[in-house]
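Provenance and format

Records in this collection were gathered into a single text stream. Each protein contributes a sequence line and a token line. The two records reproduced below are adjacent in the stream.
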Amino acid sequence: MDASVLRKRIYKLLTFSVLMVFSILLMAFLFINHTDDSLNKATYATMNQEIDLCKQRISSKKNTDLVLLNTFARNLNMETDLNSSLLEMKKESDFSSIQFIDMNHNVYSSEKNSKLLYNDLSDEYKDKIKSGFEGKQSAFKEKNNDRLTYITPVYEDANQIVGVLCADSGLQPYMDLMKKSISGGNLYVTDLKDFYGIQKDSESNEVLAVLKNMGLSEKVSGLIGVKGQEHGIVVKKTEIQGWYLCYVNSAKSLNYSMYVMSRTTNYVLMLFVIVVILLLWIAYRMMVKNNDEMEKLAYTDQLTGAVSFARFTQLVRMYAHKNNDYSLVSLNLRRFKFMNEILGRDKSDDFLCRIVTCIKPMLKKDEIICRDSADVFYMLLIGTDENVISNRIHAIFNSIRQNTKDFCYEYEFCCGVISNSTYSFEQMLTNVMFALAQSKEMASENICFFDEEVHKKKEFENFVESNMQQALDSNCFEMVLQPKVDLDTNLVVSSEALVRWKLEDGTCLPPSSFVGIFEKNRFCSKLDFYMLRKAIQQIRKWIDMGIQPVNISVNQSKIVFYHENYITELQSLLREYDVSASYITLEVLESTVIEDFKLFNQILSEVKKLGFSVSLDDFGSGYSSLNVLSKLDIDELKIDRIFLHTDSELENKKTKWILEAIINIAKKSNIRVVVEGVESIEDDRFIRCIGANVGQGYYYSRPLAIDAFNDLIHKK
């Protein structure tokens, strides 16, 4: 098994295990968190219900005592012995004592021999008595006093207050009510500082100690820790002045079943984590134990015994760190997959093993052979001299052929080599594969050394093909216009649309750098329609600006011209921009015409019916024939620039005679003659001399951007 495959499997297993552990831990954490949250909510809900019940019972007890005291106040006879009346009231109630205080602050009590004086009362007691004189009832507990006091006014008639009736009650009845209201825990009556009437359980002292060390308020609600255990706490105000109920209880007491489930889940989770960690430790020990076997699998090709690609990479880097005088060789077999089909897998594998067997003895110290996959081999050979490396590789080929004569199969090697020591290993690996790809394109077995210029050319072709569609969609192809000058009037009478590719950095690619690529990959069909649309758009703009349009010639490739929807596309463009076809000249190459005169004339007829002019471009650059002029109904003939650049005076005279003859024939056929490539005053004089109608070239003007072209035609 390949080491990388084994390592990937182990890594996948470990990754899966770790992810599983984290997933289970996360789910367990979320579950426990949800359970604890539910447990807390249930605890608080129960505590609130119980403390509300307790408040209700306390309020009911207080109201009952006040009603009884009010009854006593209404039945109090001021003309009788007040002390005796108060004593009788005490016997008929649960009050521990009853006092009457008149408007003169005389104190009467149910207690015999009581010498209680008004001035002996506390300030808080006096304030409540004063409120009673004003007609207000109250129930309160004095500080440092374990009894509850009720006060109600006494009326002589409906409106006249003659005193107040006070009654004291012990706290025990309230404590009994509190016991009945809760199911365990600790319930306290407090003024937020002192605690009394404690409802005790086994942890009451510890709970009380915690409460005394924290700032209590009516807003307190949450969890407190008592002896390492969480307890819920709720504080609520009662209707008795100065009384608050503070209830502390644990989830274990209130919701035992949920508490047990939550804790059990924690223990199970801890056990699960321990088991998983143990399993991971065992897996790690197994990985350590099998490390040597993994290295062997990783560093050796199991079929041929050659070095694996991973090990090859390491060794080359180590060698390159100290030396740079080496060559990298990539070796491949043509049609190896057919060898597999014809000879069978076993025979093919045997063939690969023999390759390694032949090469290994021919390698020098520090040289390496590696099998990457299938029939792909790499070699590190010491030295950079191309002749030496080439001879060694051919010797290897010969050795392999001698050792594989028993294979009834014709095969050829493809071989790429890079010997440039200025590259990094990564660059050399990329470049040697490029050289191998170049070798595969050759017709016969050959050794291809990496060529920087060829590589740059291929890189540029790749750039063009990778970005051409995006450039078209983004309107990165710009139209420039090269003027055509009438040789009789010296005026610009028309123009030719040329394309420039504007890159993101603002630079422009000339058409010569990419048009040839477009012709090979047939992208020129899209570009031709794009340029035709640009030209028609410009005609429309000139018309809208009130400028007399100048005829624009647009190149049409053979692919476009013979397209089945060509005429329909032309009609659609004219309708879309509402432009006359007379402003557009379609330029076709001579090679487009010669291929099929009959079909070309059919399309030409349809094009001219739409109103377009047709120009035969680059006439004379190929297998030009005057017969072409007689068979085509074209409007313009463009003479190729090669006629202007002759090597001798004799050639110049012959060129002149030929051109004069062509121009005479063209004029008699009502065909306008344009000579392109005019670059000097001599060229201009020459084409005027031979009778051409129109000149085009750098002598008159370079291709211009639209704004510059507009300025030119305005100036003219």
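Adjacent record:
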Amino acid sequence: MQGRNGILQLVLLLGLELGLEGALPPPCDSQIYCTGELLRRVQMAKLYQDDKHFVDMPLSMSPDQVLKDFNELLSSNEGYVSREQLKSFVTEHFKDPGQEMDTWIPQDWRDSPKFLQNIVDPKLRAWAEDLHKLWKKLGRKMKAEVGSQPDRYSLIYAAQPFIVPGGRFIEFYYWDSFWVIEGLLLSEMPQTVKGMLQNFLDIVDRYGHIPNGGRVYYLQRSQPPLLTLMMGRYLERTNDIDFVRDNIGTLHQELEFWRHNRSVNISHKGANYTLNRYHVPYGGPRPESYSKDEELAALLPEEDARESLWAELKAGAESGWDFSSRWFIGSNYLLDIKTSQVIPVDLNAFLCQAEGLLASFYSILGNMPMAKIYQDAQAQRKVAMQALLWNETLGSWFDFNLESSQQNHGFYPTNLSPLWAGCFSDPAIAIKNIKYLEDNKILTYKHGIPTSLQISGQQWDFPNAWAPLQDLVVQGLAESNSTRAQDMAFQLAQNWIWTNFAVYQKNKAMYEKYDINIDSGEPGGGGEYEVQEGFGWTNGVALKFLNRYGDRLTSGSGSMMFSTSCLLLALLLLGLLC
């Protein structure tokens, strides 16, 4: 297609102008799961409520045979295939999703991990025990045939068992796994964590980067780069330096992917800086959301504009925030998404911590030249973040727009992520961050920190709140040297625990996101699919907060406690208590 080639050339030229270098990640070449007429026909016929269903279906025969049979079907009907014929074809040539994996109970799961003893509230302790048990429900192991016949599956083969997020997400996901791993380590399951890390390391060796998730249709994009951070958490708990030694080159290789393919050189106020962005230089609809992407792009008149839109949607998916007004330029509408023109605070905070960790790993291993390389890289990143992302007047960091050379002063919890990453430890910065939260009235939201203050209908906007974003704020404040920041961290953690616990008591389920605009807190909504149960990272963050504050957290809601206190005070004032 001339238009698609044209936009790819344009993106490559743009990359060269911005100072990018190195090879691009390989696109998926599957004519069934990633591109092709069969994919287009099935997804646009909307045979399934969720487009992801079809591209997760294993083949019943070789892909060559499936494509041969489909081409014969097209020829016999002069190109016309009815919805019923498509449905019959898929039923004959594909199997239902999920059959390629078995439920797996981790071998290192144990009944009573030590952190439970630190939880004073008996209701919260019982709930934490339930969350700990959920690891057994979310464990998966791939069947051997996924490895021996990979062309019949969209799954990317992983030799080690792993924990999935839950719901429609029946494979592993990159950034979800960071908070899952933090929870698993609290549950004293380092063997499971090591297996998950080994899967990611194997995938970096195979592809040069970690895809968004464990499917071939995710290969064009990654997700927030947290592998080195996962290794750091594992090393803290196990002191398994031999595992780090064996894989230090692969950790370096993954950060090289981000340096070569996601770096931008920025000239600002007479100085030059290098920071990172999310950027996927491939057009075409996302296979797992094909019909939605096609319908949105149909609103644009030119093919190059449609291809550019699809590339920006993929970059938004790479960010993990799919989707948010954070990526929209000039409006509050998805059609105006320009993710690649944003320098995100959190991406650079993650990389800042990763560079510090790799410097530490290399130093421990005695490789001082490589340690110095990463020390210098982190130092340069801090200077760039301070110059481009920090705002002294507003007291926080902000995403930087490449087109306007201006900061986006909208509220997002990720604005505080450099504090979470430990890259800026000045106590004065924590105090400024507190004032920033107060100025945006974030403490008035009693059920969690909102993802943004914008209402767009997208799932990464108000009124949704997400577990990892709570952690980005709470941990950063908690580990500062400010007592006031530590007190605020506890209150924010308490609010989130009240919400998670209340919804769990009502529905006996944990969710990927929560609606915090409702008095009692409810599962979240918006976006491209129904809210999902499970849920890996929500469980991990809840366990993390319960471990940190177990001696103080309570199971009663804030409003209930306030009402009771008011009643007691009123009775005292009336002299009705002895």
